[in-house]
Amino acid sequence: MTRRPTMRDVANAAGVSLMTVSRVVSGEPRVAPETIAKVEKAVRELGYQRDDIARNLRTKDRTSATIGLVLDDLANPFFATMARAVEDEARRRGYLVLVGSTNDELERERDMVSAFCAHHVDGLIVVPTAGSHTFLRARMKSGTKVVCVDRPAKGLDVDTVTVDNQEAAFRAVTQLLDHGHTRIAFLGDQHDIWTQQERFAGYLRALASRGIAKEPDLIRHGLRAKTDAHTAVLSVMGLPAPPTALFTSNDLITTGVVEGLGQLRQAGQPGTGSVALIGFDDVALADQLQPPLTVVSQDPAAIGTTAANLLFARIAGDESPPRSVVLLTRVVTRGSGELRPVAEDAAPRP
Amino acid sequence: MTRRPTMRDVANAAGVSLMTVSRVVSGEPRVAPETIAKVEKAVRELGYQRDDIARNLRTKDRTSATIGLVLDDLANPFFATMARAVEDEARRRGYLVLVGSTNDELERERDMVSAFCAHHVDGLIVVPTAGSHTFLRARMKSGTKVVCVDRPAKGLDVDTVTVDNQEAAFRAVTQLLDHGHTRIAFLGDQHDIWTQQERFAGYLRALASRGIAKEPDLIRHGLRAKTDAHTAVLSVMGLPAPPTALFTSNDLITTGVVEGLGQLRQAGQPGTGSVALIGFDDVALADQLQPPLTVVSQDPAAIGTTAANLLFARIAGDESPPRSVVLLTRVVTRGSGELRPVAEDAAPRP
DNA sequence: ATGAAAGCGCTAACAA
DNA sequence: TTGTTAGCGCTTTCAT
Description:
The structure is a homodimer of 350-residue chains. By secondary structure, chain A is an alpha/beta fold. Helices cover 42% and strands 15% of the residues of chain A. Chain A has 12 helices and 12 strands. Chain A has a 6-stranded parallel β-sheet with strand order 2-1-3-4-5-11, with helices on both faces. In chain A, strands 7-6-8-9-10-12 form a 6-stranded mixed β-sheet, sandwiched between helices. The termini of chain A are far apart. Chains A, B: InterPro entries: HTH_LacI, Lambda_DNA-bd_dom_sf, Peripla_BP/Lac1_sug-bd_dom, Peripla_BP_I.
């Protein structure tokens, strides 16, 4: 292991000044062709590569050509797809991407933002956790651009990319109502997450629009893992008056619920074969399930691309007022959301 | 937008020298308690944060506390899960992670490694593309540690984490043979990828062990996208003598094939309901399919964790000879791999 | 316990 | 066209 060569080394090897090497390496125009050749030869022989860290220190605008991506969980397909889209936009512009998962913990988010800023990221794309985000103001004041994605950040007025969560949930639940369901369960993630609140609000609004009162037994929040959802569906389906339809508020929960229903069906529990289901977020193989899964589909790649474009516009100097972009979702009708309630599932007569 | 405060600013505000601020910020022991208090007050008031980039420049060992993760595609659940595991190990040690997808293109990989090294990463975890990786030697000579994961790098002797691809494929195909299949199709990704070669070798070895000759019609390489797999399965099932079993060599292909089979079944094509299938890589909802999907399952999180541990050991100074860790896979038997060939699918009698 | 000087690898600004 | 000087924000080394 040898010491990494510096410009000084290249300059000595090529018999020119350090400054000339700098010019050649940076591709500046006013250098004699023969000099360029000499320097490039030395660069090749020594395996020299410019130190971007040092360059960044001296350079006027202190632009590091790096952005930070702070999201909930990189292992979640939704965020992974979004991350890939962000990464592609970054590469197009010669930017590198630092990435980190917060697990929806505010403290982890703060630490991560702190570390990213210490490494001089030019901008941040953040999936904000629940809680106040005023701490980001200081970062923005010192020049770091910020874009929020999937959720707005509390207490912060910045560019934000979200989808029409509440409206989409309203449409999904309305579709269940249209097929004759009145006992519709809501199975959701932690309720302090903004998207969950919105989707739940859409659920309630749909029920209210038909004059149906919400029933606490049919509402479960805080399902973090697939197994939580699995347990929850067994629980609601075991109620004296079980729901005839389910609305699941993200992909993980949907997956857990499908597994739970599969287990009940196999155990021969009556009625579980015909319970209707609409999930938020599309999932792989949804159309191969029995019945095929109806979902509210959002486009994670488009969300990532949009956020990245907003961020790079800011980095390029855009000073216009913060924008809020709401992308549209669509209900993908495949079958599970169009099942009608069967007699044995109906609520007991008065 | 204000200029970011420096140590000099803090020193002026606290009425001490720059050096004292440096000591306080770095948590050095020999500073008077009152001085610490003064400095910390100034730090808080100015919102000062140490510039890790500058620090890194002067610091003796030039350790950036950053690693680079170079993988095939971050949107692929397999790599996303691996990435999350790497990220967790990095955070535990106070390291940041730069990430990038190569799309299996050597040039993109070279550019990315180059950019990561220019940003002074202490180490790289690389899913190497096909092609010679001797270019990594220069990086390693100048101190960057490298660990390969999922595949070995051609021409490079470094720590590598893989799974028992060939043996696993052999076992999977043998299981199909044990259930009476003789016409088994192989549906694979680009054949220049090492894992694909290994899995194909396992397939061939299993056939050979029963004296079954390989049949070119039943072998399809180069399926990059889900749609390729979809098309390919329609094609093989449309052969005059279609296969009675399929071996799919990664998660994407498996998904595409399941969709293709679903389409055929719906179209009422005879025999497609009973075609056996074993896929490499587990997929979500596999047990909810009809029939439930038998797969070769590997543990992407364990792979990522293992690779990260190897890398950080190297960064910590481990100089022992390169290690090659082979993690084990297991066949998860769920049903689709245990179907027996039915009469109408059998090859025509001579 | 604190400070002054030097310099990490590079570029900005000026000079030749 | 090329070179010289200064200095980015910090840590190292040495002095006090």
